[in-house]
Amino acid sequence: MPNYSTSAEIDASPEAVWAVLSDVEHMPDWTSSMTSVSIIDGPNPPDVGTQVRIEQPRMPLAVWLIDEWDAPRHFAWISEAPGVTTQAEHLVEPLPGGRSRVTLAITQTGGLAWLLGGLTMGRTRQYVDTELAGLRARLGQ
């Protein structure tokens, strides 16, 4: 199954990181990997069951469903397409000295995951890396 994960230490408290990362509608303000994010159904601030519409450069429009929400440490959302389910995870871990470790991961499963992963995983990895770099920059790193 195609997957990718990256992490970085950030000199900011988990609460500060979570405040930026969990404000999903403002992600395009700090990452160029997303051009538009909007909550289309569910609570705002988001929680399990919230549906989010995400536009990304050179990727098809996708609706993501938040299926895990454990504030202020972790959330995950899934997007389904014929033959492929993609899950993206966002994890914030506290470190000594008020620092944080952020891990972003993406996993694709389903009968067509290898095909889709082969076609898009390079861009997907670039977007995950861009998201982490943008988050770090937003937090003054």
Secondary structure layout:
Elements: E1 3-10, H1 14-21, E2 36-41, E3 51-55, E4 62-70, E5 74-81, E6 84-95, E7 99-109, H2 113-138
Antiparallel strand pairs: 1-7, 2-3, 3-4, 4-5, 5-6, 6-7
Describe this structure in words.
With 141 residues, the chain is α+β, with helices and mostly antiparallel strands. Helix content is 24%, strand content 42%. The protein has helices at residues 14-21, 113-138; strands at 3-10, 36-41, 51-55, 62-70, 74-81, 84-95, 99-109. The chain has a seven-stranded antiparallel beta sheet with strand order 1-7-6-5-4-3-2, covered by helices on one side. It is globular, with a radius of gyration of 14 Å. It starts with a strand and ends with a helix. The model has no long low-confidence stretch (mean pLDDT 94).
Beta strands, count: 7
Beta-strand percentage? 35-45%
Main pleated sheet: 7 strands, antiparallel
Segments where pLDDT lies below 50 for 5+ residues?
Answer: none
* End-to-end separation: 33 Å
Q: How much is the average pLDDT?
A: 94
Radius of gyration: 14 Å
Measured as a percent range, the helix fraction is 10-25%
Q: What is the topology, as strand order, of the major beta sheet?
A: 1-7-6-5-4-3-2
The topology string of helices and strands comes to EHEEEEEEH
Number of helices: 2
The general outline is globular
What structural class should be given to the helix and strand makeup? alpha+beta
